[in-house]
Structures are given as C-alpha cells and as structure tokens.
Amino acid sequence: MNTNRWWQRTTTCIIPAFLILFLLLTACSIPGGIGSGGGTPPQTSHTPAASATQPDPAKNDTCPDLSGYPTAGVDCYTPYQFRVAYGVEALMQKGFTGKGQTIVDIVSFGSPTLQQDMDAFDQQFGLPPIKIQIMNPLGTKKFDPSNKDMTGWAIETTIDVQIIHAIAPDAGIVVLTSPVSETEGTIGLPQFRQLEQYALDHHLGSIVSQSWGASEVTLKDAAGQQEIHKWDTFFQKATTQQGITFLSSSGDNGATDYSNLPATKLSPTATTSFPADEPWVTSVGGTSMIRNGTI
After folding, report:
1. Residues near 178 by beta carbon (within 8 Å), at least 6 away in sequence
2. 42 contacts 243 by C-beta, under 8 angstroms
3. Beta-strand (E) ranges in 93-210?
4. Sign of CA dihedral 248, 98, 176, 142
5. Can you tell me the distance from the alpha carbon of 125 to that of 237, in angstroms, rounded to the nearest whole number?
6. Options 3.30.420.40, 3.40.50.200, 1.10.600.10, 3.50.50.60; which CATH number does 3-27+56-62+77-274 get?
7. What pTM value is reported for the model?
8. Binned average pLDDT, 10 residues per bin, the chain of 295 residues
9. Helix or strand (DSSP H, E) at 243
10. Which residues, 6+ apart, have CB-to-CB distance to 215 below 8 Å?
11. Residue 172, Cα to own-chain centre: how many angstroms?
C-alpha cells in the first residue's frame, strides 16, 4: 500500500474476494482456536455447523444508486453476485457460512467509520449484523481525512471486511491495525509481523488476511532479504505447527510491480509481490467479472 496507488486499490477489490473465497472453501469447517507454540494442526471436519444466516438473494441482489458519488470507476458487486460467481452460494445453502471461524485482517491505520459502514452494508444487502473487533496493540495514529495514504487504507480496510462478511456472514472478524503505513521495501513490514504474531499469541483466529504487499524489486538489498527471512520463518512455523491459513493480495500491476520506494516507477521486468511469493501463503491473481444471463 502506498500513497501513489490509493485510487488503484479501489479498483481491485475483487482480489481479496477471491482470496477469502478460497480461505472459506478450505477452512470453513476447521475448529476455531490456535496455539502459540508447537503441536499438530487442527483436524478438518466436513460437517458444517447449522447456519444462522439464510439471506434471500432475490431481495438483496441490487446495488444502491451511486450517482453523485466519486466511485473512481468502481463497479458494484453484490454479495450474492460474488457468491454465485465463485461457487460459494451452493455451499452457503448447505450451511457453510463461516460459522465458528474468526478471520484476522491486517491493515495500516484502519478506518474510523468501519463499523458504521458495515452496518449500512449489512442493511443494504440483507446480511446479518456483525460487531467488528478492532484492536491496536501497537498504538494508533490520529486519522487525517486529508491524508491520501490514510484514506486509501480506510477504503482498503472497508473493502476487506465487507468481502469477508459477504462470503462468510457468520464468521467473526478481527481487524488489527498498525500506526505505520506499509508501502514498499521493508517500510511497515516489521509492524505487520508484530501484529500477526500478536494474533497467534492471543488466539484471535486461524485465518489471516493480508491485503497488502511489497514489490520483490524493493526487497533485494540486505535489509530486505533479512526481513523476508524473518517472515518466512514466521509463516513456516505458524502454518506447519499451528495450522494457520495465510492469504495475500497479488498486487495491482499484473506481471510487474514498482521498482522504487515512492512507488512511482514500474519495473521493466517481470516481478511479483511479497508475501504473495511465499510458499506458506496462498495468493491468487486478480480478475474481472462480466455479468451476463447468469454471471
């Protein structure tokens, strides 16, 4: 995330949707709770818990009127459209709604209107109300609405949480915020790692959503390689010993990414984004939906 691509973030909201879809298809029946030490990963049960949510898609498959709002070219997708497009709706009707799971979302700054926005989102689309748990273990930074970096992260945070709730309406959501903006290179990465360790140590959830990334090109120096090594060790232990599922965004720029810390210049060669390139992290590239007779 960086100040030069905050509008671009709003046009790629389908990326975290696909990642959360995969997350729930593979983990929606895993018993909750994680440990901070060794042990075997939790075993998967294939019997879904009874769902408290049975949304009526016919009544809630309509986008609100966005005329007069600065949408920045963003199309509206309803929760039902997402679920049908990615094959989740059939599972939803069988009771796979995320019940019993908690998803941890890692972001910078967060959004001061997140709960209010979620209440409006749920009312618009007929989703069950949810109380978002927001935690700031590293402290907070006062939100400045004139700061494009902060407003960009606020949009990112809202998109993340809306998609998670749309795909898994009965799952709990914990948002962990960092007072440092993750941009490129190592900036913000140590703080994010602290947040994820905090999530594990305090048993906040067994699924971690990372809707952020840093270009590999900006991590080639010694400091960058050391940071990657620390993350790799963390991911490996959390995945193999504690059964944690990590998801990551794949980036906003296709087969390339930024080559400088200010994120003003794209690399002329193919590159990818960290931690999407981690073997312990699941990441799927972005796509676009075009609605026809079905979706």
Report:
1. 106, 107, 108, 109, 138, 188, 191, 192, 195
2. yes
3. 102-108, 133-135, 172-178, 207-210
4. positive
5. 39
6. 3.40.50.200
7. 0.80
8. 37 38 39 32 37 53 77 74 86 93 98 97 94 98 96 95 94 98 96 98 97 93 98 98 94 85 89 93 76 53
9. none
10. 184, 251, 257, 258, 259, 267, 271, 272, 273, 274
11. 14
Question: Cα–Cα distances in Å, from 15 out to 1, 4, 18, 234, 287?
Answer: 14, 19, 5, 24, 7
Would you kindly state where each structural domain of the chain is located, as residue ranges? 3-27+56-62+77-274
Token output for 290: 């075009």
Q: What share of the chain is helix, strand, coil (3-state, %, to 5)?
A: 35, 10, 55
> Residue 247: its pLDDT value, please?
95
- Residue type, position 264, single letter: T
Q: For residue 278, give the amino acid letter.
A: E
Main-chain dihedrals φ then ψ at residue 150, nearest 5 degrees: -65, -45
